[in-house]
């Protein structure tokens, strides 16, 4: 049985005899030599990942002004930072959006601008106190003006990430990118074979105090990240590092269309090969890593798993969903992940980076519970109108006009011969048809791309659908696409009025 110590490995780093390989290279070495042989030959395996990590941010200390101020509210380039600690400390979160530019610029962009040495407009306000009499501060700063700029990311480097697709009839804009309708694409995140936590799944060398690569400089693992759930394969890490030494090569701001801002973070962990078990663990391949493909078209915390899929399949460029070949695309950069693993390897070989053991192991049984909600959310079935009239798609639009006038409503769901929803017509559609005098049938003037809801959907989700799709009514359908009701923006407005 091979046994090595951190002291021995660091001695080899110091005298230049250390053997370092990337996790990608380790696969073939273990395949050729076996776990025992690889453990004898290899001292350190480097990993790397570069992807969007929303749960990131930076602690900043600005120093005291003259006269001094205890900042209560703070904006950096019009992005609000949390300043509810001490007088001149603040935390800028990556996903906080600009008050004037919206999702086009956010906390992630402030962080990247700081790294690049760009000037940042600071605006702070305070109620004023005897010891901090100033009430307003406006100034311009850059990273060199700050006493500290400490990146502290609550949740980075997910052990694995679910892949995403979309079963609805419209495009979804999510943190997994734009998901095309009818399973038009699949997106995924993670570095697969180079993924840091997959190369030490038992957290033997990854834990509190472990020295890592973060943003192009040396950083540390603070401990388990938020939502750390290792039993489910979703371990996470909380990381820290000095922003002043980071590079925009490895820390990049991003805007996801229709979603918001995020921060691409580059990080890598060296795995010291202390024994055969670690050598075997670092030989994991893309085909060994399995994740779930979720349907993001279901607006729920518990999205259905359509199938399991390996990273090998995802990285091949397409996968099968119900007999349909669907293109896949990564949300993270494998090229950059490989670059990080190689740069970390070079640092170690040059004697510029020494490996370390954690001062405390990460927990392995921590659950990730859902939010406790003390109020019961209303469902669509609680507010929808069940007295809904439909019309056949082959009916004349004059018949539709007659129904709308008699029933005194504006939305008429359209069904086929099997009573399945196939469209919707409104009073406005009929007015246009009359004015143009071009069509006679309902199916010629109806909207076919119908946004729908179902009886057991939360009212809040229906309200979001109405708002984001700029429509004023949603047909309520059952699992057979039969219309069982309708909910309108008026129904939602009345509910909100009662709530307030």
UniProtKB/TrEMBL annotation:
Keyword entries, A-Z: Amino-acid biosynthesis, CBS domain, Methionine biosynthesis, Repeat
Entry annotated with the keyword Membrane: no
A Pfam entry, by short name: CBS
CBS domain residues: 384-441, 446-500
Source species, domain of life: Archaea
UniProt entry tagged with the keyword Repeat: yes
Alphabetized InterPro entries for the sequence: CBS_dom, CBS_dom_sf, CBS_domain-containing, HcyBio, MA1821-like
GO aspect biological process, one term: methionine biosynthetic process
SUPFAM superfamilies: CBS-domain pair (SSF54631)
Alphabetical list of PANTHER family matching this protein: CBS DOMAIN-CONTAINING PROTEIN CBSX2, CHLOROPLASTIC (PTHR48108), CBS DOMAIN-CONTAINING PROTEIN DDB_G0289609 (PTHR48108:SF26)
Protein name in the entry: CBS domain-containing protein
């Amino acid at each position: 049985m091979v046994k090595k110590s951190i002291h021995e490995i660091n001695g080899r780093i110091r005298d230049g005899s250390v053997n370092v390989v990337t996790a990608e290279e380790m696969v073939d070495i273990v395949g050729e030599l076996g776990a025992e042989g690889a453990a004898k030959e290899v001292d350190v395996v480097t990993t790397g990942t570069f992807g969007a990590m929303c749960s990131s941010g930076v602690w900043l200390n600005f120093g005291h002004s003259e006269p001094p101020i205890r900042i209560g509210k703070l904006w950096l380039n019009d992005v609000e930072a949390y300043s509810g600690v001490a007088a001149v400390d603040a935390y800028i979160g990556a996903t906080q959006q600009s008050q004037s530019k919206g999702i086009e610029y956010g906390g992630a962009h402030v962080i990247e601008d700081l790294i690049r040495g760009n000037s940042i407009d600071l605006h702070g306000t305070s109620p004023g106190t005897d010891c901090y009499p100033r009430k307003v501060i406006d100034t311009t700063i850059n990273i060199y003006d700050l006493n500290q700029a400490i990146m502290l990311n609550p949740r980075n480097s997910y052990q694995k990430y679910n892949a995403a697709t979309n079963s609805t009839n419209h495009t979804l804009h999510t943190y997994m990118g734009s998901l095309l309708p009818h399973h038009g694409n699949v997106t995924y995140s993670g570095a697969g074979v180079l993924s840091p936590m997959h190369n030490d799944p038992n957290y033997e060398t990854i834990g509190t105090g472990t020295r890592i690569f973060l943003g192009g400089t040396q950083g540390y693992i603070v401990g388990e990240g938020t939502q750390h759930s290792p039993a489910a394969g979703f371990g996470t890490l909380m990381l820290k590092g000095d922003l002043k030494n980071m590079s925009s090569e490895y820390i990049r701001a991003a805007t996801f269309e229709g979603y918001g801002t995020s921060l691409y973070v580059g990080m890598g962990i060296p795995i010291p090969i202390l024994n055969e078990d670690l050598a075997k663990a670092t030989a994991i391949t893309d085909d060994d890593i399995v994740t779930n493909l979720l349907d993001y078209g279901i607006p729920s915390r518990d999205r259905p798993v359509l199938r399991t899929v390996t990273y090998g399949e995802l990285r091949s460029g397409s996968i099968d969903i119900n007999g349909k070949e669907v293109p896949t695309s990564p949300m993270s950069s494998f090229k950059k992940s490989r670059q990080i693993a190689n740069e970390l390897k070079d640092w170690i070989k040059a004697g510029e980076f020494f490996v370390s053991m954690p001062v405390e192991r990460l927990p392995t049984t921590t659950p990730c519970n859902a939010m406790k909600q003390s109020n019961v959310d209303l469902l669509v079935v609680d507010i929808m109108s069940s007295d809904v009239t439909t019309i056949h798609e082959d009916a004349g639009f004059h018949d539709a006009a007659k129904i709308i006038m008699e029933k005194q409503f504006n939305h008429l769901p359209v069904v086929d011969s099997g009573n399945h929803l196939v469209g919707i017509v409104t009073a406005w559609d009929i007015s246009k048809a009359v004015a143009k005098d071009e069509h006679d049938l309902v199916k010629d003037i109806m909207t076919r791309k119908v946004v729908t809801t179902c009886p057991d959907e939360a009212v809040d989700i229906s309200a979001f659908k109405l708002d984001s799709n700029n429509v004023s009514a949603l047909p309520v359908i059952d699992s057979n696409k039969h219309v069982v009701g309708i909910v309108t923006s008026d129904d939602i407005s009345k509910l909100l009025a009662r709530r307030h």
